[in-house]
Amino acid sequence: MRKPKKILNNPEDLRHEIMQGIVYAYQGEMISIDEFSAVYRQGINPEQVVIISGGGSGHEPTFAGFIGAGGIDGCALGEVFTSPSPDQIIAVAKATHKNNGVLFLYGNYSGDSMNFDIAAEILADEGIETRTVKATDDIASAPLDRISDRRGVGGIMFLYKIAGAAAQYKKYDLSQLQDVVVKANFNTCTIGVALNGCALPQSDSFNFILGDDEIEVGIGIHGEPGLYRQKLTTADEIVDVMIERLCKDRAFQVGDRLCVAVNNLGGAQ
């Protein structure tokens, strides 16, 4: 059986090395909280609501790569495909908040939800108000009438940019900021296609296997099962399938203005 190839050092050091690399790339514009594997940006405006995200490592540049002007302000880095702990989230929230409230913005996964909720309760006891928006853009993970059950995947990038602009440039208060990001989230939909599984740093096997002539439509970013598997076909035919499903999910009208993003679902290609 084919085994995955990886370019890394010690798998146990991967999260820390990711954090080191991000901080170095920002050339003095990002501060790390090494004890809690969290990062935040320099120069947060004292008049703004702070936006904090977080999630498992392994999805770079999401999440911390969207820290910056017109983006989020801080991020807690979990281990690979693992939620950050409440302590990590609390540490970065305390380091960044400006007494105008904190918006938690992250993907809709059970571990993330639990730990961000715990952090919010503890911060509330200390007088720091938080609100939460969870990205739910993955149309393959639940129907529209159960949007709150959907996973958050690549569409969170749009939420980061909209939230960052509203908080940093328009100085939306916490309630206004939550409202505009909730609206943006509802109008964001995505779908993914996989050619093969992925492998965790410590593992010498893939988390699932597809046949040489197979693809999976609707796959999740951690390898969660998709909608179905089919024979590998042309790029045009695969895109037609994806676009058809995206358009059925939303009642687009002639003249609507859309913003389209295409990524490689985390594959280093």
Offer a few descriptive terms.
269 residues, alpha/beta, Rossmann fold, Hypothetical Protein Tm841, Chain: A,domain 3, 2 domains, 6-stranded mixed sheet, 3-stranded antiparallel sheet, 6 helices, 17% strand, globular
Structure commentary:
By secondary structure, this protein is of the alpha/beta class. It has 2 domains: 13-187, Dihydroxyacetone kinase, domain 1 (Rossmann fold, 3-Layer(aba) Sandwich), CATH 3.40.50; 193-249, Dihydroxyacetone kinase, domain 2 (Hypothetical Protein Tm841, Chain: A,domain 3, 2-Layer Sandwich). Helix content is 30%, strand content 17%. The protein has 6 helices and 9 strands, in the order αββββαβαβααβββα. The protein has helices at residues 14-25, 86-96, 110-125, 156-168, 174-186, 235-249, and strands spanning 30-33, 38-41, 50-57, 74-80, 102-107, 130-135, 193-194, 214-217, 228-231. The strands form 2 sheets. The protein has a 6-stranded mixed beta sheet, sandwiched between helices. Strands 7-8-9 form a 3-stranded antiparallel beta sheet, with no helix packed on it. Strand 1 (30-33) and strand 2 form a beta hairpin. Helix 2 (86-96) crosses helix 3 (110-125) and helix 4 (156-168) packs antiparallel against helix 5. The protein is globular and about 55 Å long. The protein starts with 13 loop residues before the first helix and ends in a 20-residue tail after the last helix. The model has no long low-confidence stretch (mean pLDDT 94).
